[in-house]
Amino acid sequence: MTVKIGIPRALLFHNFIPYWKTFFEGIGAEVVISGLTNKAILQDGLRLSVDEACLPVKVAFGHVEHLKNKADYIFIPRLVSVFPREYICPKFLGFPDMVRQNVQGLPGVIDNNINMYRRESDLYRQFFEIGSLICGNPFKIALAIKKAGDAIKRFTARVESGLRPDRAIDSSYSEDGPAGRKDTTVAVIGHPYNIYDSFINIGLLKRLEDAGINVLTTDNVPEKEVNDHVAHLNKKLFWTLGRRMVGAAYHFLESPGISGIIHVASFACGPDSMTGELIERKARRIGSKPYLNLTLDEHTGEAGIVTRVEAFLDMVGTKEQAARC
Ligand code: SF4
Q1: What does the DSSP assignment read for 139-151?
Q2: Which of 49, 78, 89 for a ligand 1 pocket mutation test, highest count of atoms within 8 Å of Cβ?
Q3: Is the C-beta atom of 54 inside 6 A of ligand 1?
Q4: CATH topology of domain 4-160
Q5: Per-residue pLDDT averaged across 120-149, rounded?
């Protein structure tokens, strides 16, 4: 019988699902992904997680709860580091333990470490271990790792060409040019689980696109571009997501084709308070682009988001009009 692997549509799902899905399918498993976040998932997440957790972690609990009866294993790797010499937020490290503690009736949990702090090549060994839990054929596991690596490279190239990761995941999805469809382009900076989960951000990206705005995000900025921009900081940023957000924001602030920046942060997120400050300071120093900071938690209301986004878009429109005169 085919083994079913449940993957929550949460946390770093949008960054790594092409790798994870290709890998598990390559070793003969079936991948089951939880649905889009909705009210029931949020309610379960709030019930199961600790109050102090940020909203994306609470939502991730809800996704695990909704998957637990649909799979033989739940895949919630202990994400320590996804980039050499950098770390991921400690909440990712503790997530598998918190889930085991708080979610009842779990199937098997695959929570092996993913730790690329010392070397990127450690990933191979870590996925080989994971594969060995399900598949007894080492050649099949090695081939699945190779195919997963190829899949993530293809996905990254599509995202860096301007596609949103939530669209690039579907390998058949295509659209005309990254920023050529509409006159105005706005950059949205934030953690992937905040930007691409339209329930968490109350439809932010759709609101912008419906208003005729082209949207680029943190993930559309290539790694080299990000690193060139953060290289000038006094101290190295050792949180991977924070480094990417700051580098991408600096890139967009200096790009003439970008009309404004929206920074999406989580309430009670330590890393966001630091990266947000770095981005806002630079935005103020440059002073030429409208800047909006949206902080999200489970109490964020639609009316507040709509009003602030509308005011931001008014500023973008006014600036563009002034530039044309
Ligand atoms: S970086 Fe912030 S938003 Fe992300 S998991 Fe950590 S505390 Fe939560």
Answers
A1: HHHHHHHHHHHHH
A2: 89
A3: yes
A4: Rossmann fold (3.40.50)
A5: 95
